[in-house]
Structures are given as structure tokens and as C-alpha cells.
Amino acid sequence: MITVTDKVFHIQTKATSYIFRILEEGYLENLHYGNKIRVTDDYSPLYEKHSTGYGMEVSYGQDKTLTLDNICLEYSSSGVGDYRHEPMELKMPEGSYSNDFIYKGYELYEGIYKESEKTHMPYAMEGEDQVKGEIKEEKEKHKRNKEYIDASVETLEITLVDSLYHIELVLIYTCFYSSNIITRRVKLSNNTKESIVINKIMSMQLDLPDSNYTVNTFDGLWARERHRNETKLHSGIYVNDSTTGASSNRHNPLIILAGEDATEHTGSCYGMNLIYSGNHYEAIEVSGYHKTRLMTGISPYHFQWELKEGDRFYSPEAVLTYSFKGKNGVSHNFHHFIQEHIVRGEWAKKERPILINNWEATYFKFNESKLLKIAKSAKELGIELFVLDDGWFGQREDDTTSLGDWVVNEKKLGGSLNNLVNKINKIGLSFGLWFEPEMISEMSDLYKIHPEYAIKVPNRTPRLGRNQLVLDFTKKEVRDYVIDAISSVLSSANIEYVKWDMNRHISDGYSGELKERQGEFYHRYILGLYEVLEVITKRFPHILFESCSSGGNRFDLGMLVYMPQVWTSDNTDANERVTIQEGTTYGYPLSTMTAHVSASPNHQTLRSTSLETRFQVACFGVLGYELDVTKLSMAEKKIVKEQIEFYKKHRKLFQYGQFDRVKEIRKDRNTAIYQVVDEEKSEAISLLYKRLATPNSGIDRLRVLHLTTDQQYEISVRKQKISIKQFGSLVNQVTPIKIKEEGILQATIDQIYNLESEDERYQLFGDMLAEPGIKIKQEFTGVGYNEDTRVMGDFSSRLYIVKKR
Ligand code: GLA
Fold first, then answer.
1. For a disulfide at 559, which of 210, 318, 492, 547, Cβ 3.0-4.6 Å?
2. Coil/strand/helix, residue 72
3. Residue 707 C-alpha to ligand 1 middle, in angstroms?
4. Ligand 1 centroid to 47 CA: how many Å?
């Protein structure tokens, strides 16, 4: 709901208020962003008061006490006395960098921004489930206010114009009421006769009147994505950005600003993200006046955009949220928004299949018979989708060749792709295929014919990444080639899933196409990519697309508009996954994160973890298996079968339930508790994860949040299998049989027999489950074992199932 009272704009979501006003001088002052507040017609308590001005400052306009340097602004101009970090740097017609954008008018309407399509970038869509009871109630209350427009989604456009030139800047706000999200972006139009140059243009600026914040960023590298880091802000500028050509595994565009007393569950927190997959930039500045300025947008790195007469530039859409329920509150808002307004198409809100991927099972070394054996075993275990990963095309036997040659290697597959797919379908599995469409190998037929398709600077030898070059997606002929090549494979067989990979950073940024406008290269690459994704995903609407970039190098809202799920990380080690998946949940729901059970010792860390922990960690995401299932022992097969049955039974809850970090691993770096609860609050599942065993470390308390307080629930632990090997030389103390440790008998028994974990059940009310929770059974502490002992060890876990009585 957006209201306009005199010169004040009030954007209200279900639980937040965003208020700004037009100053006499035409600038926009931000009055409040935070909790939803009721205001009489008098907004003056929120105005910043200035009766004498400040020493050393430059004043603006007639009012000599007004200095733009110490006021919360909606979008600052340059060279007019605001010395904070600016959201936009323009080279104006006369060659200066000074501009002065003042208020001209506004437009308010239902629905999303009307020029969304024209931006040629992904954007948040309207969604269906918005007009719910609460909004209708608001409508009733405000019926008599003629400026009130009620809509599930509303957009406010504020037009500013430079005081000297006909250059227009439109600030666009879209209110997603029930998600507690406000999106922001800008459009800049040059209506002068001369060209202007954009060196930097942010999608939004948010000024907050105080500065006691900690910024949470989600950083890493390959196989170590989105580890949460906290940095206490102090005077100066903190930058979170990417320059690799993708949103990157280094710094995700997601930012959470936590207030002084904020925790996971309580306190004021702001969240910010960007619907964009290329180089991004987030800056947070604490000024001398102890105000905080946040901004996000396309990175100014190697960026320059010429705006000729009549041209306009659209920024990507930025996403903003606020919650007083701590970081979990911010995550709830983001998760709701992504499910309702970002992920779209036939697979949105649909339960995702459990897949088997052959990558870590075979790498490049497979043939038809091996693939069919894996598929048969997978089917027996209950798996639903078979994914053929890298190595099925051209001459690709390792990562040095064939990218770009999307022609099936029939020798390797024992016939056509259609033939293989039919056989897989006959086994009872659907079929999915891996592609890396943005790349070209120097050793490829495509490169022989079209070396100019690769990105490189003239007369320089381009740098390789994973032995490959990147295709120049700024060129139409390259995009057309890729669309045709991929489409022809996809139409050649019954393909129901695609893994769209991108395995290197961009270097040597240059395109012959752009001539002297090379500053447009990185953004045009992304616009080119979006065009290709738009065509292919529209052409094949039934296919479930999974985005991947060496794992989670491009886990962002832009990709999620086209592809409903993302390969979270190439790191499949359960212990590493806890940190990676936990970090990811701050901004993204479980339905977007894919998680596979892989072999132990793990291929990225060489760490050994139990099959049950690998599964239970992967349950908190979209489950898959990525190991040679033909090599599982009888006992392991039994376990996996039960795991899959269990996941299927609770799949909707795991993928679409409300997720909470009850205790984050980052806190003591050893224990994590996560939970999912269904919408009706009739079912919940909690994961307890322990990194290292520490005897006598105290009790473990399990709290399950957000259930109905006066409702009775039953809670029980998921029984899991414990390998007798875990007991080492204690084996004869804990089992009735006497066997030799590491002997043949022990190995044989381990293949067919496992111990059962402890049983534990209670009945209690929802309020007691939330606080104080349950003191769960004693953990193994080295002095004895019986059936009530919770045998954990390193990298161990339990799942607790809560059901309404
Ligand atoms: C990337 C992906 C992996 C796998 C390989 C294949 O690294 O992230 O999952 O598909 O490429 O080359």
C-alpha cells in the first residue's frame, strides 16, 4: 500500500513503513524505513530539524541552514554539497561531473513497473497469492481516502530532472506487500542534444539516520561459497562487490545490516539484494554525522555507458527488506519474495525430483553400459531423475576440448542421445543433461571456424580458465549460434532437466562489436546472457533448469528468474555444506539450493562422514545423489532406500516449509540447529548437527520455533543406522558379538549389519517446544554405552520430527 499525503510518500508493506518527503528545494528526504508506523497527517516529528546549519558546510538553495551532507536523501546528486559516496557519476554535456536532480512529479499505479519488459533484464513479477485477507482489511479502512490505491503490488515512480539540462532520473519503487519487500531501481533518460556518459549508476540509495550496524556479507571462493562474515561498521566506506563478470562466489550481492542488539531471532535488520548476475557493487558508508548510506547496483568496475540524445538506461532491480525479528526475519521475507515473485514457470512451487548425477561417480570416464548400470541401481533406490553431466559431446574426454561443439558423442553413448534417453526412461527415470553454453574450447570445431566468437583483446593472447575461453555474448551471431545449438539438442530427445554451467571468470574483457564503447562490455555480456536464457527457457517450458557456475559462483536473483534451482557448491562434503548452506539460507529459500549425497571420503576435502549425516544435511535443500550407487554395499543400499522414502514423505516440508536457523554453526563453530515448519504449523523437522565430539560439553537442548503455542505435538527422533566400525576397538563392548577390530569379520558384518540409534519421543505443547525446549538424551561421553546413549562422534547429526497430535 502506498499513500501520498501532501508531500509525503508512505510505502507500507505488511510489517514495514518506508517514508520520504519532498523538501521545498525539490530534494527527497528519507524520513523512516523500519517498523510499520501509524502517522497522523503530521509527519513533522520525522523531519530532520536544522535551524542554524553546521560549521564548514555548503548550503543548498534559499535555505542557508540546509546542507545536503547531513540529511537522509533518497538519491543524491553530485557536486551540490553532499560529500558522501554518490550513487551516480555522470559526465554532463559541458564536461563537468556536477548534476542537480530535483523533484518534478510522481505516478502511482497497481502492479509492477510498467517498463519492466523494456529493461531486458530479469525482474520481480506480480505473483498470484497476494490479495489475502489482510490486504482486503486495509482496503476497507482506507476506502474513503481517494489517494489510497490498494493493490497486492504497487509501483511508485518519482521523476527528478536536472535543474540545468533535460536529463531525467526516475526513481522506481515497487511495494510487495505480503513479502515485506520494496524493490527499487532507476531509469535515466537523456533528453538533451548532446551525449552524456554514465560512469556509475546505482539502483538505489538508502540513508539511515544512525550508524550502529554490523554488516553481514556472504563471501568465499570456489568450493567455499557464501560463508557469512560480520564486520562492525565504523566511519568510512565498506565495499562488497564482484569484478569477475558474474555475481561471483567471492561476494554474493546479498547484504544484511544488523542493528546493535540484533540476533538471529530479534532486533532490527535490513536486507538488500540485486536481481542481477553480473558485476555488482554494494557500498555502505558511515558519515561524520553518524548516518549510514547503503547502495547497490552494477559495479562501476570497467563500466562506462554513453547515453546519446534520446537514449535511456535502466538499472537492475534492487531488493530491500526490513525486519525487527532479527536475521531470520529478514530471511523469511526474502524466502517468501523469491517463492512468490522471483521463481516462475512450471517448476515454481512444484516439488523437485530426487536426482542422480554421474559427475562424481564417473567424471569423464563413462560409456553407455556404465550409465545404464548407475540408472538401474538409482531406480532401485527410489531416485527419480538421471542427470548425465559433462563429457557427452564432441571429443570431450577431459576439460581441454570441445566446449561449443554441442554434438553428441555417439561412440561414447553407444548410439544417439534419443536412444540413451529412451533406455533411461524405460528404466523408469526421467533424463537430464549438462551444458556449458557460454564457453568455447580452443580445441573445438567451433573455434576452428569462429575464433572471433571468443572474448579476447586484439593482439593479446587471451588468458585461459579451466583450459577454456568465454564466448562473446555481446554479439548477436554468438547468441544465435548458442540458442540454435542448445535447442537442437533439447529437441532431439525427451530431456526434462538441464544443468546450465559456467566454469570460469571472465578476463580480457573486450568485444569487437562495441568498438570505442568497451565500458559497456560486462553489462552487455549479461544482457546477452539474459536474452539467451529468456529464449531457451520460454522455448522449453517443461524443462527444470538448474543453474550452476562451478557450483555457486552465480547464485543470484537474476539467474533464479530463469532457473528455479542452483547447484549450491561443488563442495559436497557434509561438514563444509553446513557452513555453505547456512550462509545461503540468509537470502535464499531451500527450494533454490540443491544438495547431493556424495562419496566418503569426500572428493573435495578427503573427509569421511557417515552416510546418514551426508543425507540429513542434504535434506535441507533439494536432495540428490552424486556417487557411484552401483558400488554401495547391501547395508548402504538399505540406508539410502530408507533415506529416499523419508525425503519423499517430507519433501514439501523440506523444500517449501518456513526455514529458521535456530542456532547457527557460526556461533560456536560446532553445533547447528535448523528447522522447517509447514504453513499450517502441523509438522516440523529439525536438524541437529555437531562438528566435533567434545565429551561432557553439556546438555543439548532442542527448541522448535513457530508452532502453535496451545497445540499438542509429538516429537520423535529419526532412527538412523550406526556403523559398527564407528566403535573401533570398543566394538566388543557395545555389540553382543565378539569380533576382531579391522578384521575380515568386522568388515563383512559392516556390509550387512548396522546398530540402531537411540529412540526418543515426547508429547508437549508448542510453547514448551519453543522455550525451554527439550533436553535430549545424553551424548556418548566415553564411559559407557546402552540403547539410550546418543552416539554422535565427529560430523554427526540427528533429525527430529514434530507432528501435531
Ligand atoms: C563444474 C560443475 C560440476 C560439474 C563439472 C563438469 O565444476 O560445478 O558440478 O558439472 O563442472 O565439468
1. 547
2. coil
3. 40
4. 54
Residues 6+ away with beta carbon under 8 Å from 572: 360, 596, 597, 598, 602, 603, 604, 626
Distance CA 122, CA 610 (A): 41
Q: Of 678, 677, 674, nearest to 662 (Cα)?
A: 674
Residue 779 phi/psi, 5-degree rounding, is -80, 150
**Comparison of pLDDT for 144 and 81, the residue scoring more:** 81
Residue 136 has pLDDT above 70, yes or no: no
Residue nearest to atom 6 of ligand 1 (CA): 390
What is the C-alpha to C-alpha distance for residues 244 and 250, in angstroms, rounded to an integer? 9
Which ligand 1 atom sits nearest the alpha carbon of residue 399?
12
Dump pLDDT digits (tens) for 198-236: 999 999 999 999 999 999 999 999 999 999 999 999 999
Say if CB 528 and CB 517 are below 8 A apart. no
Residue nearest to atom 1 of ligand 1 (CA): 550
Express each pLDDT in 573-623 by its tens digit: 999 999 999 999 999 999 999 999 999 999 999 999 999 999 999 999 999
Share of the chain above pLDDT 90, in %: 89
| Ligand 1 pocket test target in 363, 393, 503, 596 with most atoms within 8 Å of CB | 503
For the stretch 762-793, pLDDT in tens is 999 999 999 999 999 999 988 888 999 999 99
Query: Mind spelling out the 3-state secondary structure of 712-755?
Result: EEEEEECCCEECHHHHHHHHHHHCCCCCCCCCHHHHHHHHHCCE
| CA separation, residue 222 to residues 18, 219, 550, 627 (Å) | 38, 10, 7, 20
Measure the CA–CA gap between 343 and 164, rounded to whole angstroms. 42
- Whole-number Å distance between alpha carbons of 349 and 353: 12
Q: How far, in Å, from the CA of 797 to the mean position of ligand 1?
A: 28
Protein residue with its CA nearest to atom 8 in ligand 1: 550
Q: Which residues line ligand 1 (CB under 6 A)?
A: 359, 389-390, 434, 501, 503, 548, 550-551, 567, 570
CA 518 to centroid of ligand 1, rounded, Å: 31
SS3 638: helix
- What residues act catalytically? 501, 570
Residue ID of nearest Cα to ligand 1 atom 2: 550
In the prediction, which pLDDT does 568 show?
A: 98
